[in-house]
Amino acid sequence: MSKAFTREDDDAGFTLEVSRPSTRDRRVAGPVTALGARLARERAGFEAVARAPVAPPPLDTGAAALGAELRVRSRGGVERLVFIASVDEIGLVPHAASATSPLARTLMGSRAGDVVEVDGPRGVEELTVVDVRYPA
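Above: the chain sequence. Below: its structure as tokens.
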């Protein structure tokens, strides 16, 4: 039998410590939305998001940008909310779509009344932008 597998090595004085970075140490990729920052301050586990810089509000609040909440309608008449959020806010902000996702990238710059085509997992979907607003 190899010496590596003998009982003598069981208590060789080695300890294994697993270090996990906490959310306090985690870095945020970029600015977050005002809503995301507010929600992060109210909830445990999102300290890094709470300390991240907040993206300034857009000059044109009629057009979708980071921090916009859009109400969109599918061709079948089903409406849903989409909040354009930073990657770090996913799971924190309701109805969040990452600003880097195909859906959010397609909606950026759109206004109420615009019709956009989103290439999603089920194919191309046509959406009508019903409303654009910026919740605080």
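The chain is about 15% helix and 25% strand.
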